Amino acid sequence: MLILNAMDQILYEAQRQGRISFYMTSFGEEALIGSAAALDSKDHVFGQYREAGVLLQRGFTLEQFMNQCYSNEKDLGKGRQMPIHYGSKELHFQTISSPLATQIPQAAGAAYAMRREGSKQCAICYFGEGAASEGDFHAGLNMAATLGCPVIFYCRNNGYAISTPSIEQYRGDGIASRGIGYGIDTIRVDGNDIWAIYSATKAARKIAVEQNKPVLIEAMTYRVSHHSTSDDSSAYRSTKEVEDWSKRDNPISRMRAWLEGKGWWTKSEDAEVTKAAKADVLRAFAAAETLKKPSIRHLFEDVYDQLPPELERERAEIEGLIRKYPDYYQVNEFAK
To answer: What DSSP state is assigned to residue 258?
Structure first.
Protein backbone atom coordinates (compact mmCIF):
# COMPACT_ATOMS: atom_id res chain seq x y z
CA MET A 1 0.00 0.00 0.00
CA LEU A 2 2.85 2.37 0.81
CA ILE A 3 4.62 1.60 -2.47
CA LEU A 4 1.42 2.22 -4.43
CA ASN A 5 0.89 5.49 -2.58
CA ALA A 6 4.46 6.61 -3.28
CA MET A 7 4.17 5.71 -6.96
CA ASP A 8 0.89 7.62 -7.25
CA GLN A 9 2.36 10.74 -5.65
CA ILE A 10 5.43 10.78 -7.87
CA LEU A 11 3.71 9.99 -11.17
CA TYR A 12 0.90 12.45 -10.49
CA GLU A 13 3.48 15.20 -10.00
CA ALA A 14 5.37 14.00 -13.06
CA GLN A 15 2.26 14.49 -15.18
CA ARG A 16 1.77 17.96 -13.75
CA GLN A 17 5.34 18.74 -14.80
CA GLY A 18 4.64 17.54 -18.35
CA ARG A 19 6.93 14.51 -18.11
CA ILE A 20 4.15 11.99 -18.81
CA SER A 21 0.87 12.68 -20.61
CA PHE A 22 -1.75 11.25 -18.23
CA TYR A 23 -2.21 9.54 -14.88
CA MET A 24 -4.84 8.22 -12.47
CA THR A 25 -4.18 7.62 -8.79
CA SER A 26 -5.64 5.20 -6.24
CA PHE A 27 -5.69 7.63 -3.30
CA GLY A 28 -8.29 6.43 -0.80
CA GLU A 29 -8.76 3.05 -2.51
CA GLU A 30 -5.48 1.30 -1.65
CA ALA A 31 -7.24 -1.44 0.36
CA LEU A 32 -8.26 -3.06 -2.94
CA ILE A 33 -4.88 -4.82 -2.76
CA GLY A 34 -6.53 -7.21 -0.31
CA SER A 35 -8.57 -8.70 -3.16
CA ALA A 36 -5.40 -9.55 -5.08
CA ALA A 37 -3.99 -11.45 -2.10
CA ALA A 38 -7.10 -13.67 -2.03
CA LEU A 39 -6.68 -14.85 -5.62
CA ASP A 40 -4.63 -17.63 -7.17
CA SER A 41 -1.74 -16.28 -9.23
CA LYS A 42 -3.19 -17.94 -12.36
CA ASP A 43 -6.64 -16.38 -12.00
CA HIS A 44 -7.26 -13.92 -14.81
CA VAL A 45 -7.68 -10.24 -13.97
CA PHE A 46 -9.77 -7.80 -16.01
CA GLY A 47 -9.14 -4.31 -14.69
CA GLN A 48 -10.48 -0.84 -15.27
CA TYR A 49 -8.27 2.06 -14.15
CA ARG A 50 -7.31 1.78 -10.48
CA GLU A 51 -5.96 -1.75 -10.20
CA ALA A 52 -2.24 -0.95 -10.15
CA GLY A 53 -2.18 -2.41 -6.63
CA VAL A 54 -3.31 -5.78 -7.99
CA LEU A 55 -0.40 -5.79 -10.43
CA LEU A 56 2.01 -4.76 -7.67
CA GLN A 57 0.86 -7.67 -5.54
CA ARG A 58 1.37 -10.05 -8.46
CA GLY A 59 4.94 -8.95 -9.04
CA PHE A 60 4.75 -6.26 -11.72
CA THR A 61 7.92 -4.27 -11.11
CA LEU A 62 8.25 -0.55 -10.59
CA GLU A 63 10.38 -0.48 -13.73
CA GLN A 64 7.52 -2.01 -15.71
CA PHE A 65 5.07 0.56 -14.35
CA MET A 66 7.39 3.42 -15.29
CA ASN A 67 8.21 2.03 -18.71
CA GLN A 68 4.50 1.80 -19.52
CA CYS A 69 3.75 5.33 -18.32
CA TYR A 70 6.63 6.67 -20.39
CA SER A 71 5.78 4.48 -23.42
CA ASN A 72 9.47 3.80 -23.88
CA GLU A 73 11.33 1.02 -25.68
CA LYS A 74 10.87 -1.39 -22.73
CA ASP A 75 7.13 -0.83 -22.46
CA LEU A 76 5.40 -4.21 -22.77
CA GLY A 77 2.68 -2.51 -24.81
CA LYS A 78 5.25 -1.07 -27.25
CA GLY A 79 4.01 2.47 -26.75
CA ARG A 80 0.53 1.78 -28.10
CA GLN A 81 -1.44 2.67 -25.00
CA MET A 82 -2.05 5.69 -22.78
CA PRO A 83 -0.27 5.72 -19.40
CA ILE A 84 -1.79 3.46 -16.69
CA HIS A 85 -3.24 1.09 -19.32
CA TYR A 86 -1.14 -1.79 -17.99
CA GLY A 87 -1.17 -5.41 -19.06
CA SER A 88 0.89 -8.53 -18.43
CA LYS A 89 0.47 -11.91 -20.10
CA GLU A 90 2.91 -13.41 -17.62
CA LEU A 91 0.83 -12.23 -14.64
CA HIS A 92 -2.56 -13.07 -16.25
CA PHE A 93 -3.59 -9.41 -16.23
CA GLN A 94 -5.53 -8.41 -19.34
CA THR A 95 -4.46 -5.11 -20.87
CA ILE A 96 -6.66 -2.23 -19.70
CA SER A 97 -8.72 -0.41 -22.30
CA SER A 98 -10.27 3.04 -21.97
CA PRO A 99 -13.92 2.34 -22.90
CA LEU A 100 -16.00 1.73 -19.79
CA ALA A 101 -17.31 -1.73 -18.92
CA THR A 102 -16.02 -3.59 -21.99
CA GLN A 103 -14.08 -5.85 -19.63
CA ILE A 104 -17.25 -7.13 -17.92
CA PRO A 105 -18.61 -9.41 -20.68
CA GLN A 106 -15.02 -10.28 -21.60
CA ALA A 107 -14.46 -11.57 -18.06
CA ALA A 108 -17.67 -13.58 -18.20
CA GLY A 109 -16.60 -15.14 -21.49
CA ALA A 110 -13.12 -15.96 -20.22
CA ALA A 111 -14.59 -17.53 -17.10
CA TYR A 112 -16.92 -19.65 -19.24
CA ALA A 113 -13.88 -20.91 -21.16
CA MET A 114 -12.17 -21.78 -17.85
CA ARG A 115 -15.21 -23.77 -16.79
CA ARG A 116 -15.20 -25.75 -20.04
CA GLU A 117 -11.49 -26.40 -19.65
CA GLY A 118 -11.94 -27.58 -16.07
CA SER A 119 -9.01 -25.40 -15.02
CA LYS A 120 -10.28 -24.66 -11.49
CA GLN A 121 -9.35 -21.02 -11.99
CA CYS A 122 -11.59 -18.00 -12.04
CA ALA A 123 -11.66 -14.53 -13.51
CA ILE A 124 -12.04 -11.34 -11.52
CA CYS A 125 -13.39 -8.18 -13.10
CA TYR A 126 -12.93 -4.75 -11.52
CA PHE A 127 -15.07 -1.74 -12.37
CA GLY A 128 -16.54 1.37 -10.78
CA GLU A 129 -20.18 2.01 -9.91
CA GLY A 130 -20.38 4.38 -12.86
CA ALA A 131 -19.53 1.54 -15.26
CA ALA A 132 -22.47 -0.39 -13.82
CA SER A 133 -24.72 2.00 -15.75
CA GLU A 134 -23.32 0.69 -19.04
CA GLY A 135 -25.15 -1.94 -21.02
CA ASP A 136 -22.14 -4.26 -20.89
CA PHE A 137 -22.61 -4.56 -17.12
CA HIS A 138 -26.06 -6.10 -17.52
CA ALA A 139 -25.05 -8.31 -20.45
CA GLY A 140 -21.97 -9.56 -18.59
CA LEU A 141 -23.76 -10.36 -15.33
CA ASN A 142 -26.68 -12.05 -17.06
CA MET A 143 -24.33 -14.14 -19.21
CA ALA A 144 -22.30 -15.19 -16.17
CA ALA A 145 -25.41 -16.10 -14.17
CA THR A 146 -27.15 -18.12 -16.88
CA LEU A 147 -24.03 -19.94 -18.09
CA GLY A 148 -22.58 -20.61 -14.64
CA CYS A 149 -19.28 -18.75 -15.09
CA PRO A 150 -16.62 -18.78 -12.34
CA VAL A 151 -16.12 -15.01 -12.23
CA ILE A 152 -15.93 -12.44 -9.44
CA PHE A 153 -17.38 -9.04 -10.32
CA TYR A 154 -15.68 -6.50 -8.06
CA CYS A 155 -17.41 -3.12 -8.04
CA ARG A 156 -15.48 -0.22 -6.50
CA ASN A 157 -18.26 2.08 -5.40
CA ASN A 158 -16.14 5.14 -4.68
CA GLY A 159 -18.96 7.66 -4.72
CA TYR A 160 -18.29 9.32 -8.05
CA ALA A 161 -18.49 8.48 -11.75
CA ILE A 162 -16.01 11.20 -12.73
CA SER A 163 -18.10 14.23 -11.65
CA THR A 164 -21.44 12.49 -11.10
CA PRO A 165 -22.07 11.53 -7.45
CA SER A 166 -23.62 8.13 -6.78
CA ILE A 167 -26.84 9.70 -5.49
CA GLU A 168 -27.45 11.02 -9.01
CA GLN A 169 -26.54 7.75 -10.74
CA TYR A 170 -29.30 5.46 -9.46
CA ARG A 171 -32.30 5.27 -7.13
CA GLY A 172 -31.85 1.65 -6.08
CA ASP A 173 -29.79 0.31 -3.18
CA GLY A 174 -26.36 0.68 -4.74
CA ILE A 175 -24.96 -1.99 -7.06
CA ALA A 176 -25.38 -5.00 -4.77
CA SER A 177 -29.13 -5.18 -5.32
CA ARG A 178 -28.55 -5.65 -9.04
CA GLY A 179 -26.56 -8.81 -8.44
CA ILE A 180 -29.42 -10.27 -6.45
CA GLY A 181 -31.75 -9.37 -9.29
CA TYR A 182 -29.66 -11.48 -11.65
CA GLY A 183 -29.59 -14.40 -9.23
CA ILE A 184 -25.93 -13.84 -8.35
CA ASP A 185 -24.47 -14.39 -4.88
CA THR A 186 -23.67 -10.88 -3.66
CA ILE A 187 -21.91 -9.18 -0.77
CA ARG A 188 -21.40 -5.54 0.16
CA VAL A 189 -18.15 -4.91 2.01
CA ASP A 190 -16.20 -2.08 3.62
CA GLY A 191 -13.94 -1.12 0.73
CA ASN A 192 -11.44 0.62 3.01
CA ASP A 193 -10.84 -2.44 5.21
CA ILE A 194 -8.15 -4.57 3.59
CA TRP A 195 -9.02 -7.62 5.72
CA ALA A 196 -12.73 -7.39 4.93
CA ILE A 197 -11.88 -7.21 1.24
CA TYR A 198 -9.49 -10.16 1.53
CA SER A 199 -12.06 -12.30 3.34
CA ALA A 200 -14.89 -11.43 0.96
CA THR A 201 -12.78 -12.12 -2.13
CA LYS A 202 -11.45 -15.38 -0.71
CA ALA A 203 -15.01 -16.58 -0.02
CA ALA A 204 -16.15 -15.38 -3.44
CA ARG A 205 -13.36 -17.28 -5.16
CA LYS A 206 -14.30 -20.48 -3.33
CA ILE A 207 -17.90 -20.18 -4.56
CA ALA A 208 -16.83 -19.31 -8.10
CA VAL A 209 -14.35 -22.16 -8.50
CA GLU A 210 -16.14 -24.91 -6.57
CA GLN A 211 -19.69 -24.16 -7.68
CA ASN A 212 -19.07 -22.56 -11.10
CA LYS A 213 -21.07 -19.51 -10.12
CA PRO A 214 -20.48 -15.77 -10.45
CA VAL A 215 -20.22 -13.58 -7.35
CA LEU A 216 -20.68 -9.82 -7.08
CA ILE A 217 -18.72 -7.80 -4.51
CA GLU A 218 -19.65 -4.18 -3.91
CA ALA A 219 -16.80 -2.47 -2.07
CA MET A 220 -17.90 0.82 -0.51
CA THR A 221 -15.01 3.28 -0.61
CA TYR A 222 -14.24 6.90 -1.47
CA ARG A 223 -12.20 8.40 -4.30
CA VAL A 224 -9.96 10.91 -2.56
CA SER A 225 -8.15 11.87 -5.75
CA HIS A 226 -9.41 13.69 -8.81
CA HIS A 227 -10.82 11.26 -11.35
CA SER A 228 -7.63 11.69 -13.38
CA THR A 229 -5.09 14.36 -14.23
CA SER A 230 -7.66 15.66 -16.73
CA ASP A 231 -10.12 16.37 -13.92
CA ASP A 232 -10.50 19.02 -11.21
CA SER A 233 -12.84 17.60 -8.59
CA SER A 234 -13.10 20.93 -6.75
CA ALA A 235 -15.60 21.90 -9.45
CA TYR A 236 -18.17 19.41 -8.13
CA ARG A 237 -17.27 18.65 -4.48
CA SER A 238 -15.87 20.61 -1.58
CA THR A 239 -12.31 20.41 -0.35
CA LYS A 240 -13.68 19.85 3.14
CA GLU A 241 -15.50 16.71 2.00
CA VAL A 242 -12.28 15.24 0.67
CA GLU A 243 -10.28 16.24 3.76
CA ASP A 244 -12.89 14.75 6.09
CA TRP A 245 -12.81 11.41 4.26
CA SER A 246 -9.00 11.40 4.21
CA LYS A 247 -8.86 11.89 7.98
CA ARG A 248 -11.82 9.72 8.96
CA ASP A 249 -11.51 6.64 6.77
CA ASN A 250 -8.15 6.31 5.05
CA PRO A 251 -7.20 2.68 4.22
CA ILE A 252 -3.50 3.20 4.89
CA SER A 253 -4.13 4.97 8.20
CA ARG A 254 -6.48 2.18 9.27
CA MET A 255 -3.94 -0.52 8.38
CA ARG A 256 -1.20 1.42 10.16
CA ALA A 257 -3.31 1.77 13.32
CA TRP A 258 -4.22 -1.92 13.26
CA LEU A 259 -0.59 -3.01 12.94
CA GLU A 260 0.51 -0.60 15.68
CA GLY A 261 -2.25 -1.88 17.93
CA LYS A 262 -0.91 -5.42 17.48
CA GLY A 263 2.61 -4.25 18.24
CA TRP A 264 3.77 -5.22 14.76
CA TRP A 265 4.55 -1.73 13.44
CA THR A 266 6.11 1.45 14.75
CA LYS A 267 6.25 5.06 13.58
CA SER A 268 9.98 4.75 12.92
CA GLU A 269 9.44 1.65 10.77
CA ASP A 270 6.67 3.44 8.90
CA ALA A 271 8.91 6.41 8.16
CA GLU A 272 11.74 4.13 7.05
CA VAL A 273 9.56 2.05 4.71
CA THR A 274 7.88 5.15 3.26
CA LYS A 275 11.27 6.74 2.56
CA ALA A 276 12.58 3.54 0.95
CA ALA A 277 9.44 3.19 -1.19
CA LYS A 278 9.83 6.73 -2.55
CA ALA A 279 13.50 6.12 -3.27
CA ASP A 280 12.71 2.91 -5.18
CA VAL A 281 10.02 4.64 -7.24
CA LEU A 282 12.28 7.59 -8.04
CA ARG A 283 15.08 5.25 -9.10
CA ALA A 284 12.80 3.39 -11.53
CA PHE A 285 11.30 6.69 -12.69
CA ALA A 286 14.71 8.18 -13.50
CA ALA A 287 15.78 5.07 -15.43
CA ALA A 288 12.58 4.98 -17.51
CA GLU A 289 12.86 8.65 -18.40
CA THR A 290 16.23 8.14 -20.10
CA LEU A 291 15.13 5.31 -22.41
CA LYS A 292 14.27 5.83 -26.05
CA LYS A 293 10.81 5.57 -27.57
CA PRO A 294 9.76 2.22 -29.10
CA SER A 295 11.01 1.31 -32.55
CA ILE A 296 8.90 2.66 -35.40
CA ARG A 297 8.71 -0.86 -36.83
CA HIS A 298 6.23 -1.71 -34.03
CA LEU A 299 3.65 0.35 -35.94
CA PHE A 300 3.28 -2.59 -38.32
CA GLU A 301 3.62 -5.59 -35.99
CA ASP A 302 1.34 -7.88 -33.97
CA VAL A 303 -1.78 -7.66 -36.15
CA TYR A 304 -1.00 -9.77 -39.22
CA ASP A 305 1.14 -12.90 -39.35
CA GLN A 306 2.43 -11.62 -42.69
CA LEU A 307 2.08 -7.98 -43.68
CA PRO A 308 -0.40 -7.45 -46.54
CA PRO A 309 0.94 -5.61 -49.63
CA GLU A 310 -0.74 -2.31 -48.69
CA LEU A 311 0.99 -2.17 -45.32
CA GLU A 312 4.29 -3.23 -46.90
CA ARG A 313 3.93 -0.23 -49.20
CA GLU A 314 3.14 2.11 -46.29
CA ARG A 315 6.09 0.83 -44.27
CA ALA A 316 8.45 1.38 -47.19
CA GLU A 317 7.05 4.89 -47.64
CA ILE A 318 7.58 5.79 -43.97
CA GLU A 319 11.10 4.35 -43.97
CA GLY A 320 11.89 6.43 -47.04
CA LEU A 321 10.58 9.63 -45.45
CA ILE A 322 12.60 8.97 -42.27
CA ARG A 323 15.80 8.46 -44.28
CA LYS A 324 15.10 11.66 -46.22
CA TYR A 325 14.17 13.82 -43.20
CA PRO A 326 15.93 12.29 -40.17
CA ASP A 327 16.06 15.56 -38.22
CA TYR A 328 12.37 16.30 -38.72
CA TYR A 329 11.37 12.84 -37.48
CA GLN A 330 13.94 12.96 -34.63
CA VAL A 331 14.99 9.38 -35.34
CA ASN A 332 17.63 9.39 -32.61
CA GLU A 333 14.85 9.46 -30.02
CA PHE A 334 13.54 6.08 -31.19
CA ALA A 335 14.98 2.59 -30.66
CA LYS A 336 16.24 0.80 -33.75
So the answer is: H
